[in-house]
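User: Hi! I'm working on a homework problem where we have to compare a predicted structure to a textbook description. Could you give me the structure for the chain below?
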Amino acid sequence: MKTNAGRFFEDYRIGEVIAHAVPRTLSGGERAMYHALYPSRGALYSSDEFARASGLAQSPLDDLIVFHTVFGKTVPDISLNAVANLGYGEGRFLAPVYAGDTLTSSSEVIGLKQNSNGKSGVVYVRTTGRNQRGEAVLEYVRWVMVRKKDLGAPAPEVVIPDLAKAVAPEDLVIPAGLDFSQYDFAQAGEPYRARDYAVGEVIDHVDGVTVEEAEHMLATRLWQNTAKVHFDATFRPDGQRLIYGGHIISLARALSFNGLANAQMIAAINAGAHANPCFSGMTVKAWSEVLDVAETKAPGVAAVRLRLVATNGVQPELRGADGKYHADVLLDLDYWALMPA
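Assistant: Happy to help. Predicted structure tokens:
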């Protein structure tokens, strides 16, 4: 059999390192398509001149373009037979990626836990994306629920990795040369710098985007994400294609421009959960909570830790009295962003 049916839960082994196909060279085309799919307006990712004034050689590709590309490479080996992608942790953006760079990715299996129903299990992997020079540009952990093919296969020994709750500020990687000391707030779109945000402050990003089936299918193809739950309407009992969770991350991040226009670069993903599934026709809105503010060694650059919450419509609260996510909460993402100090 020459075709690839994808891996099932019983096919993974702790410590296994999987090199993912296929290398991908990124260009300005990915940027243009990304900005067509999402209302993204960050100045650093829109203008070479703004990036040069901020100490970079040119405008890098959006950090989430890098995330989606590296993630997409992993799908045939990690989540082709997934029930759902569950969460993220210990993510760090390690170097800017520019048009013309070629990305590859690999994953190490670091955790396994069979579910009590015996029909599926959770696989934990640490994924690293590298450029054509072999330099790591992104690393993150994710965990995904994967179906079993042989229900009689014995459950593996339970291994659940001990993950940090957040990336420490001193472990954030600041791009070489980044300098916000001469930052142009007028061009960026808002006057607010890190010192204007208070820990505990909640920002309603006001705007919303209704998810369409066509744009989601474009996104999954663009990122070469072939998970069956996103493509095949017959794969789920309800006959609906599940919207790729990364699509919601990018929509929410783009919506957060209104109130956080100067949170220019994502430096780390501390934690993330796709709290509830998203389907075509839902309207995504977002709000952010300021969790922390830290200094960096780069001139004029601060790091702001944010909780980004995407909802189906207006949902001002994250969890109910029972401690569970509200049914309308789609995404709970904890990340560090670089902002003028």
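For your comparison, note the following. The CA atoms of residues 202 and 289 lie 4 Å apart. The beta strands are 17-25, 82-93, 102-114, 120-130, 136-147, 202-210, 265-273, 283-295, 301-312, 329-340. Good luck with the assignment!
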